[in-house]
Amino acid sequence: MTTSIEKNTKNQPYNRQEWQQGYQSQPNEYNYWIDEIEGIIPDELQGTLFRNGPGLLEVQGTPLKHPFDGDGMICAISFLPGRKVHFRNRFVQTKGYVEEQASGKMIYRGVFGTQKPGGWLNNVFDVKVKNIANTNVIYWGKKLLALWEAAEPYRLDPKTLETIGLDYLEGTLNPGDSISAHPWIDPFCELDNGQPCLVNFSIKPGLSSEITIYEFAPNGELLRRHSHIIPGFSFIHDFAITPHYCLFLQNPVTFNPLPYFLGLKGAGECVKFHPNKPSHLIIIPRIPPYDGMKILETKAGFVFHHANAFEEENNIYLDSICYDSLPQVQPDGDYKEVDFENLDPGQLWRFKVDLKDHKIERQMIETRCCEFPSVNPEKVGRNYRYLFTGTAHNSQGNAPLQGILKLDLVTGEKHLHSFAPSGYVSEPIFVPKPQATREDEGWVLVMVYDGSKHRSDIVILDGENLEKSPIATLHLKHHIPYGLHGNWTNEVFI
């Protein structure tokens, strides 16, 4: 269903029971050619869309308290010459996943709130962490890597999705180290003669936190690594880059580990958000000798994801999805019973940082509920015009993501493609057309859960004409639970 921007209506545009079905586990692993297609797949669209997210929402019959605790499942959608498309999904065979499947019981507590059955006595002092590899997946340096920010990556075979094992990035990481699930690809790295490089980070939180930044060449070789100490505990999920800086928003949170150690709460339930305290914007140079780190205060609420950042004269601009509050994970709560209307929506804000006067101005760009922002990959870290993001159908209030919103940051023009009332969207991925000359000249790929049919679609939208009917809709034979992040590569694997 395609609509233009419209006013809020009294009736909710979604069905709660249908939305809840999107959180049903998908225990099956599939391998087939997609043969139910509406529309025409563009001949030029060739490559592979990889996506990651929790595939199991319970472990051996024990429901998870938070979907982020679910075991990672990779989907690969391969677009081949002749408009052929192949689908494959497989679970990441992490050590914890294999152990629990073999034992027939839950062995590990979840980081975000899931406790093992048996009460606190069966959880006290159990701080073993299961690497669930469920947040992102990226093809870089001829490796397909499943990422989870609290542990090492898992390497997979890009053709079969078979798990190869833990990957330490050519010796960059040691056993027990972690690396973020939110890398960025700088399309034109100044230190590498304009070649692309992958930029990522890790955090070791504590009373003070250590941020380590890594930059990798296209062949996977480590180019640069540098570490910095910042004051206070850090819960940082994402960051942003410009040609000369890495930007981190340190959320105003504290962590009391005692209930976690005593088996009373999950680690996520021990994080407390302080809405009246400022956030800290941490600006770390990417250019050697890496000195001159700046830490500035601003009001930002809670931030999971950043859309983009860029430099202009003596200013840095950072665009982020901000929440006025962070709901606490409740031990007796059910995430499928969330009261959307009483939660603050994510909204898009721009932070203008004056590097000379060390001042930050902020401006709300979009009031509409939105998440999972995406830009043309050639505009990462650069001044850009178009942003694509998941959004609610209605223009006001909080609700499930049911549409893709295109924002023109120059004119303020907005375009919405809504899948309401039965469609629920994942993160959009923008794929530029070959030899494109315009920033929005490309395709927006999005996985949509259809609650009326309890199955998922891969939808191809026109980046220049988002409101129009989909270029093509590829119907899967089953559903895929709501996922997190993914990436596109021009390489085809089959």
Give your account of this protein's structure:
The structure is a single chain. The chain is mainly beta. 4% of the residues lie in helices and 40% in strands. It contains 3 helices and 35 strands. It has helices at 16-21, 95-103, 258-261; strands at 31-33, 37-39, 47-54, 58-59, 62-63, 72-80, 84-91, 136-140, 143-147, 154-156, 163-166, 184-186, 197-204, 208-216, 222-231, 240-241, 245-250, 253-255, 271-273, 279-285, 294-298, 302-312, 315-323, 347-354, 359-366, 370-374, 386-391, 403-408, 414-418, 423-425, 429-432, 442-450, 455-462, 472-475, 486-489. The strands form 9 sheets. Strands 2, 30, 31, 32, 33 and 34 form a 6-stranded antiparallel sheet that branches. It has a 5-stranded antiparallel sheet with strand order 1-7-6-3-35, with no helix packed on it. A 4-stranded antiparallel sheet has the order 8-9-10-11, with no helix packed on it. A hairpin with a 4-residue loop joins β24 and β25. The radius of gyration is 21 Å and the shape is globular.
